[in-house]
Design goal:
It is a single chain. This protein is an alpha/beta fold. About 40% of the residues lie in helices and about 15% in strands. Helix 4 packs across helix 5, helix 4 packs across helix 12 and helix 16 runs parallel beside helix 18.
């Protein structure tokens, strides 16, 4: 589709050739382009719709790419991608070998920093501002990222520097779900002081034009102003001003002409500063405005009607509706509710992901026993530790790639005291189109060395339910990791095994295959594709528990097989393959071990099937590998 403006904007330099009164049309075109594109190629819709005007204004005022824009939570940045030379490739967004789902310096000089996890923009931008004081640097933080502790560490450090950092606060009161907690109300309170802030800003400009407001006087005036405001209104100082970070706003984040005016006025002010913008997630597209959580990433949809396109229902030969299989997170959410109904000590904790991890199932029934702590993984873990210390049974659900952010807390605050916390680790392994920042490939290797930690990975839905029931009755920290997507259905008559015991799924006499977790289903499919004679050569063990690992199985395999293949949906260094090699070495078994998994690399974005094939972990690749080892 041809657009009057954006079809001819190949860089921000082209944008800056326009008159400021043309920018609202540019914004409208960007909004339509994003809606039309994402209706066919799904992505993060609502966040980017809410950030269009601020994106256009920043690129219009700042001299990018020399000036730096550091995005926090990269799904705000679709308009940024379109304006910076990726419009014609935007249809490949999140696709295998297509453009990155988030900002990535390897992809574009306009992407100043990688942005997959939240709350890092202020710290990164501050480092850039100090390293390159001749450049303007802006951190754009939004979608709940200000609930993360790292953001406050960055603010604290910024307050102590002479950098000219600009922090743009994209305040939409949302992460994926609505933001909960005191910071939300605090920003509302700032918003209610809008007239006062605008009056103060105008007085400041007048004094500066008269030469009466120097940088040295500014801090003294700020402190005096904060003290007077506290005395007269019995109100605490603005947190930003209290840190000696100049505060501007709140302003309408969808008034692009006013945003340009404000940015032109403040862009060269000395010292750190915050521009507080009020925006609406999903702005300009009615379905996304009305249900921001669903339209955060809605999948394919009809852009005209707003109807989300779902798979057609399937019916059996008798005309009966075939029920849709459960997603892994739904298995978790439904089982958690059942467990919580039986055990009043169970408390659910999630860092801003109640819908994504399906803890909202328990939250709807027992809101007083579920805590959404915001984008604050470290706090989620230590908060869980405090609950456990006083006898509660915390179930802390964190996506695998986000668990990395709480590694010290897992060690220091949970494992060291052997506290009984159940970590349910969603989105483990290959996640898909969100790419390297979101794949959950490190959890097995990351958690295995921690003393007292117990680690399990189910192969199907029944195993997840059974492991959760076991974990509630265990002592000490327990981690259960499972992938994204549809959960494999357990076969009829599946056995329920004790903690630390592996299960023989297929017997054979030449090679032993040891898998852990859902990738074992790829092994099952690969074995089914072998000839009858080849199948007789292959033994397949579902290890189920990485720690404690099943010594009986390893002793049997070490004694009876010359070749062993380990398969895991994670890093080969430190995971199942490493654990097997260590055990065999310690017990003097001489088996030849081949480790299959992800070898010392970050994995790009793409559909899981495409990525498994690239990594030779899809069923067909595994079948060829097995065949090559059979005599």
């Amino acid at each position: 589709m041809e657009y009057k403006y954006i079809s001819h904007i190949d860089s921000p330099a082209d944008l800056r050739q326009l008159q400021v009164n043309e920018l609202p049309v540019v914004c409208a075109e960007l909004r339509d382009f994003i809606v039309q594109s994402l209706s066919k190629n799904p992505g993060h819709l609502a966040s980017s719709l809410g950030a269009i005007e601020l994106t256009v204004a920043l690129h219009y005022v700042m001299d990018t790419p020399e000036d730096k824009l550091v995005w926090d939570v990269g799904h705000q940045a679709y308009a940024h991608k379109i304006l910076t030379g990726r419009r014609d490739r935007f249809y490949t967004n999140r696709q295998f070998k297509g453009i990155s789902p988030f900002t990535n310096p390897a992809e574009s000089e306009y992407d100043a920093f990688i942005a997959g996890h939240a709350s890092n923009s202020i710290s990164a931008a501050l480092g850039m501002a100090i390293a390159s004081p001749e450049k303007r640097v802006a951190a754009i933080i939004g979608d709940g990222a200000l609930t993360g502790g790292l953001a406050y560490e960055g603010l604290n450090n910024a307050s102590m520097t002479r950098s000219n950092l600009l922090i743009v606060l994209n305040d939409n009161n949302m992460a994926i779900d609505p933001i909960r907690g005191g910071m939300t109300q605090y920003l509302v309170d700032i918003t209610t002081g809008k007239r006062y802030n605008q009056w103060r800003y105008k007085v400041y400009l007048a004094l500066q034009r008269l030469g009466w407001m120097t940088d040295s006087r500014k801090q003294k005036v700020q402190r005096f102003n904060n003290n007077i405001k506290s005395i007269l209104s019995n109100h605490q100082p603005n947190i930003f001003s209290g840190l000696n970070i100049r505060y501007f706003g709140p302003a309408d984040g969808h008034d692009v002409i006013t945003l340009v005016k404000i940015l032109n006025e403040i862009k060269d002010y000395k010292g750190p500063k915050v521009l507080h913008l009020i925006t609406q997630k999903g702005k300009g597209y009615a379905p996304a405005e009305q249900n921001q959580t669903i339209w955060h990433a809605p999948g394919k949809f009809n852009p005209e009607t707003g109807e989300r396109l779902k798979p057609e229902p399937q019916y059996d030969q008798n005309g009966e509706l075939i029920p849709q299989p459960e997603l892994w997170q739904e298995v978790f959410g439904n089982e958690l509710l059942r467990l919580a109904q039986d055990d009043p000590n169970i408390i659910g904790i999630t860092p801003a992901m109640p819908t994504g991890c399906s803890m909202n199932i328990m939250q709807r029934q027992m809101p007083q026993r579920v805590y959404d702590v915001g984008i604050a993984e470290e706090h989620a873990v230590t908060f869980s530790a405090g609950l456990a210390k006083e006898g509660k049974m915390p179930v802390c659900n964190i996506y695998s790639s986000f668990l990395q952010r709480a590694y010290d807390e897992i060690i220091h605050d949970v494992a060291l005291m052997n506290l009984h916390v159940l970590f349910c680790i969603d989105r483990a392994g290959i996640v898909g189109q969100d790419g390297a920042t979101h794949h959950g490939l490190l959890d097995l290797a990351m958690l295995r060395p921690i003393p007292n930690m117990q680690i399990a990975a189910p192969i199907n839905d029944d195993e997840l339910r059974h492991m959760m029931r076991q974990a509630i009755r265990m002592k000490g920290p327990v981690a259960i990791r499972y992938p994204r997507g549809i959960a494999a259905t357990a076969p009829e008559g599946s056995a329920t095994l004790p903690v630390g015991k592996a299960q023989l799924l297929h017997d054979g006499n030449q090679i032993a295959i040891l898998s852990i977790g859902a990738i074992g289903n790829h092994v099952i499919e690969a074995i089914q594709g072998l000839t009858e004679q080849q199948q007789a050569a292959v033994a397949h063990y579902d290890m189920r528990w990485l720690k404690p690992i099943c010594h009986d199985t390893l002793d049997h395999v070490g004694t009876h097989f010359q070749h062993v293949i380990t398969i895991e949906d994670g890093m080969t260094d430190g995971g199942l393959g490493s654990a097997v090699l260590e055990y065999f070495a310690d017990h003097h078994y001489t088996c030849r071990v081949t480790r299959l998994g992800v070898h010392d690399q970050f994995v790009e974005h793409g559909k899981p099937d495409e990525l498994y094939q690239m990594l030779d972990l899809d069923p067909e690749s595994l079948r060829r590998t097995f065949t090559s080892f059979i005599n």
